[in-house]
Design brief:
Length: 213
């Protein structure tokens, strides 16, 4: 995985005891709408100002809710950020599952290419937000839900390799994920927004690693 601290994105680590899980789960439509408004407001601030500009007061103001209502659900700004990261990983996981189902049995190149395309489309839907959350994820403690999602995404790559007879699939999957993530992160950070161009570059790299191109 890429190391943002070596690329001018060093941030102080939050204390390990900072709460990063919601105080309660919204059950009713009104409370879900409140949480959605809070998360959407936080996402807009991250896109425009980065994590340094995000405060709970600013999120509440932009969301149109009281600070008391915000704290009913999210005890800290880190809890809001962690929820945005969980949602990002859920969406990416779902995209990868759909890609796996659509390409299963079509051969190694097709299956790996489908996974590359799915993850890249996810990042390019909102590249500024995705990039900001990737940086934040590196300095927040990894909660159980996010850890499981990341493990499941890696298993999808491992399974595709195993179906196609690639030996030592877990280690190969680790390398492929690192290659794809590193290229995508560097290119998107540098302003690349052309899906086709970036897809070709990553596809060439990962298939070249596999010796399948």
């Amino acid at each position: 995985m890429s190391n943002h601290s070596q690329n001018g994105h060093s941030h102080p680590m939050p204390p390990q005891d900072v709460p990063i899980t919601p105080r309660k789960v919204p059950r009713q439509a009104r409370s879900r709408a409140t949480c959605d408004a809070i998360l959407q407001a936080a996402a807009r601030i991250l896109e425009r100002q980065g994590s340094e500009g995000l405060t709970t007061n600013l999120v509440a103001e932009l969301a149109g809710v009281s600070i008391g209502s915000l704290y009913q659900y999210y005890p800290t700004k880190e809890a809001i950020l962690a929820e945005l990261i969980r949602e990002m990983r859920r969406q990416m996981h779902d995209d990868m599952v759909a890609a796996t189902e659509a390409s299963r049995g079509l051969g190694l190149e097709a299956e790996i290419d489908a996974l590359v395309a799915a993850t890249l489309r996810h990042h390019l839907r909102n590249p500024e937000l995705a990039h900001a959350l990737e940086i934040i994820e590196e300095r927040l403690p990894l909660d159980d839900d996010t850890a499981v999602l990341k493990q499941n995404m890696a298993r999808l790559v491992v399974a595709a390799l195993e179906r196609n007879g690639i030996p030592d699939a877990p280690a190969v999957a680790f390398d492929l994920i690192a290659i794809g993530h590193g290229l995508a992160d560097a290119a998107i950070s540098g302003g690349e927004r052309n899906f086709d161009h970036l897809h070709r570059r990553i596809r060439r790299a990962v298939l070249g690693y596999l010796g399948a191109n």
